[in-house]
Here is the input.
Amino acid sequence: MNGDAVIIVRVVIRGRVQGVGYRAFVAREAGRHQLEGWVRNCRDGSVEAVFKGEAAVIDDMIAACKRGPFAARVDAVDQSPGIESDLRARVPGEEFSVLPMF
Here is the structure.
């Protein structure tokens, strides 16, 4: 990280985002951007994620979430501030986790 403010953001992605490789896409992008956090499917058909990293990098990650993988159709990406305890859901020892459905 190069000095930009480190923030935590929680996002909820709505649209056709389950059954299309969306979580794997988010995990790959998060790794590429060197972000901490997690992603999971929600019972209502949305995908939820938490990202921790430099603000500019998180902006790039949210832009990637709006695109999604080829088979996805993203209708909305809602974001809100996150807190450090949001990261506790990660699998111990992992920087970024793909979690089971919530």
In short: The chain has one domain: 6-88. Residues 5 and 55 are 6 Å apart (CA to CA).
